[in-house]
């Protein structure tokens, strides 16, 4: 069940159940039993408890794609991912009440992009998400060449790539359609100050057009941010400011 196209987190729920089976010997009843187990018992990973319905559907979708690839490569005769109506849970949140409150207020936004206890690097990162509406992967893949500050009346970001933290590679944006984003005046001031001073002080040299706007140090070199580390930093900053936890995507 090792495939470059699968998600390691999702497979962590699968391998303990059917990981010992040969690929060609996996049957629909095995997949059905797996889904039933995920729905009723859950897998207690990182204290998360029972899996959310959306997660169960995502795991099944990953398996379905993987077995489709195996069938296309003639490793198996048929895709065993066949479920009867109703065996997959409906697409609802584990806690149906959380989504309405998963937002940031204007005051919280101002704190996250200006508070002196938060590093300038993270303030710029938060501003790109909060003021430009970028997903984490889009922000992590953004380079200085993607920013044109000279267009009037507002500068422009060209959003054409996204960094996949799981596979450590740059890919197309989610919609596969590059888009342009107008740059809010506050964000423009922050990017100007970051480029002229903060970025150089952090990295030790002047940025080039090919450099990432918000890089991270990993294994001794400046490279793309990783989602899990960025989320941990966000939770630390929210706690420091006395704010409740939310996801990066809520920005």
Describe what this molecule looks like in 3D.
With 251 residues, the protein is mainly α. Helix content is 42%, strand content 10%. It is built from 8 helices and 7 strands. Strands 1-2-5 form a 3-stranded antiparallel β-sheet, with no helix packed on it. A two-stranded antiparallel ribbon has the order 3-4. A two-stranded antiparallel ribbon has the order 6-7. The longest helix is centred in the N-terminal third of the chain and has 20 residues, at 53-72. It is elongated, with a radius of gyration of 22 Å. The protein starts with 7 loop residues before the first helix and ends in an 11-residue tail after the last helix.
Q: Strand-residue fraction?
A: 5-15%
Order of helices and strands: HHHHHHEEEEEHEEH
Question: Roughly what percent helix?
Answer: 40-55%
**Given the structure, what is the number of helices?**
8
Give the uncertain stretches in residue-range form. 1-6, 43-48
Which radius of gyration do the C-alpha atoms yield? 22 Å
The overall strand count is 7
- Spatial shape: elongated
What does the main sheet amount to?
3 strands, antiparallel
Mean pLDDT: 89
**Strands side by side in the biggest sheet:** 1-2-5
Structural class: mainly alpha
Distance between the termini: 35 Å
């Amino acid at each position: 069940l090792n495939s470059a196209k699968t998600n390691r987190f999702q497979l962590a729920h699968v391998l303990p159940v059917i990981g010992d089976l040969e690929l060609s010997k996996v049957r629909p009843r095995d997949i059905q039993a797996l889904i039933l187990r995920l729905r009723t018992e859950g897998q207690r990973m990182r204290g998360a408890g029972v899996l959310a319905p959306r997660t169960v559907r995502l795991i099944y979708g990953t398996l379905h794609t993987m077995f489709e690839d195996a069938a296309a490569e003639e490793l198996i005769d048929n895709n065993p991912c066949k479920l009867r109506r109703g065996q997959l849970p409906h697409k609802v949140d584990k806690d149906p009440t959380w989504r309405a409150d998963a937002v940031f207020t204007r005051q919280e936004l101002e704190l996250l992009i200006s508070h002196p206890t938060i590093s300038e690097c993270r303030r710029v990162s938060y501003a790109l998400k909060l003021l430009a509406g970028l997903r984490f992967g889009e922000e992590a893949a953004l380079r200085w060449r993607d920013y044109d500050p000279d267009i009037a009346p507002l500068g422009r970001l060209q959003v054409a790539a996204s960094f996949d933290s799981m596979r450590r590679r740059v890919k197309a944006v989610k919609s596969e359609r590059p888009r342009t984003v107008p740059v809010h005046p506050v964000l423009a001031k922050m990017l100007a100050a970051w480029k002229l001073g903060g970025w150089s002080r952090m990295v030790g040299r002047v940025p080039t057009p090919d450099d990432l706007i918000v890089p991270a140090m990993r294994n001794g070199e400046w490279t793309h941010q990783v989602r899990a580390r960025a989320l941990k930093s966000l939770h630390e900053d929210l706690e420091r400011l006395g704010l409740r936890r939310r996801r990066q995507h809520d920005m």
